[in-house]
Amino acid sequence: MSATDAGPRTSHLAPVWFSVTDLQVASGEGCWITTVEGDRYLDFTSGIAVTSTGHCHPAVVEAIRAEAGRFVHAQVNCYRHDLLEPLAELLDTITPAGIDTFFYCNSGAEATEGAVKLARQATGRPNVIVFQGSFHGRTHLAMAMTTSKTSYRAGHHTLPGGVFPAPFPHTVGTGLSEDEAVAQALDGVRYLLASQTAPTETAAMILEPVLGEGGYHPAPAAFLRGLREICDEHGILFVADEVQSGFCRTGRMFAIEESGVRPDILVMAKGIASGFPFAAIGAPAELMDRWPVGSHGGTYGGNPMGCAAAIATIGVLTADGFLANVNARGDQLRAGLREVASRHPVLADVRGPGLMVAAEFRDPATGAPDAGRTAAVIGHCRDEARLLLMGAGTWGNVIRFMPPLVVDDAEMALAVDAVAAAVDATA
Ligand SMILES: Cc1ncc(COP(=O)(O)O)c(C=O)c1O
Question: Distance between terminal CA atoms of the chain?
């Protein structure tokens, strides 16, 4: 162990990972994790919206276990294993109409970058439009596309070019009605196309239907429809980044369904395989056919254990009653949080579909974002109630609730009580 100015190092791990907790965990089951000391915590982080079927769902564990005994790695360029097509067929049945052909990779960032490569090669255009407050990943192009916080980009400039951020419609803290916010943001997109990236040079717009890291802001349906119209007018592709919002998180299989808007490309990761690193890009066959053979790929994409985990995960997500539970628990959570808000104006907004729910904290006197109170509530829940929560938002004033989607009403009641006690105690 080497020494530093601060004393001897106690870890061989890179310190670059920020920490939500310093818990050392031994195991996970359902909505709960157990530490090496044997303490149980209710995990409303789901490992950043990943373990939607709960930690170690038996069907997913069994699928991975069985597949590992057959094939750990069956590289897709070298040969094709027998779960690639069945998973694609399954994705075809659950993704929005028109999305019928799939490419597999390993992470959300990789899928996002792949989607941009596809859009550029299919259209022959160089630029993409992203939206203020978005998060698309940590790799260089994904960093250039990410505008939710400067800390994700700081120290890395100059980032790849050809990325143009457009405004996202906000009502909380702006005094705008939803209609006004949508009209303003759509004007901003048109202005961008007139002033910075010509339509003929714009390959795609890429948008999270519910901003994730940016603070769990649902994009209004009218905004999504307006963007679709602009895309259709100019032959620009509409890319939905459903890395965080997909796979039942919002009470629908994909968040974009609520608006009825048809994406040209769908980006999927996180909840797709219950925590096995797996991601996918979906698009209509005629669009995928415009991606030159050999111009994209990857060593591990389509990993057989990942395919098995995804197939098992989709089986759990599509079982009778699964979505009904997501929506019922979401209603329970929002109602509980709104009750707290009625007593504490510092809890300025409760929003979000399904179990992609935000609680936003603002100083009632000034309307300014209250990151201090947000952190205090998260800390109180962790230390006093053993409930794990994470923050979000450009200003750090949002708690995002992303429990496993198998959460039951007793577990949800525990969480709501914990948050109520935390807001009371930190007043
Ligand atoms: C909407 C969205 N896109 C992309 C990513 C990047 O995914 P990954 O961390 O798997 O690279 C994330 C991660 O949080 C995300 O929320």
Answer: 44
Compute the distance between CA of residue 60 and CA of residue 306 in angstroms, rounded to an integer. Answer: 10
Give residue-wise pLDDT tens across range 335-356.
Answer: 999 999 999 999 999 999 999 9
CATH number for the domain harbouring residue 306: 3.40.640.10
The minimum-distance atom of ligand 1 relative to the CA of 134 is 1
Q: How far is CA 172 from CA 54, 218, 254, 348, 363, in A?
A: 32, 12, 24, 8, 13
pLDDT in tens, 102-120: 999 999 999 999 999 999 9
Cα–Cα distance measured from residue 9 to residue 44, given in angstroms and rounded to the nearest whole number: 31
pTM as predicted: 0.97
Tokens of 417: 């009580």
CB 290 within 8 A of CB 122: yes
**Cβ-defined contacts of 359-366 (< 8 Å, 24+):** 359/398, 359/399, 359/401, 359/419, 360/172, 360/215, 360/393, 360/397, 360/398, 361/397, 361/398, 361/399, 362/172, 362/173, 362/397
Helix/strand/coil for 366: coil
Pocket of ligand 1 (CB under 6 A): 48, 107-109, 112, 135-137, 208, 212-213, 241, 243-244, 269
Q: Note whether residue 383 is domain-resident.
A: no
Task: For residues 156 and 112, state if they share a domain.
Answer: yes
Q: How much distance in Å is there from the Cα of 88 to the middle of ligand 1?
A: 21
Residue nearest to atom 7 of ligand 1 (CA): 108
Top mutation candidate among 239, 270, 278 for ligand 1, by most atoms within 8 Å of CB: 270
Position in ligand 1 atom list of the atom nearest CA 139: 11
Nearest to 124 by CA among 235, 264, 263, 286: 235
| Rounded Cα–Cα distance for residues 424 and 403 (Å) | 22
Compute the half-sphere exposure of residue 402: CA atoms within 13 Å on the CB side of its CA: 28
- Ligand 1 centre and the CA of 359: distance in Å? 21
Q: Specify the ligand 1 atom closest to the Cα of 109.
A: 11
The domain in which residue 330 lies consists of 321-359
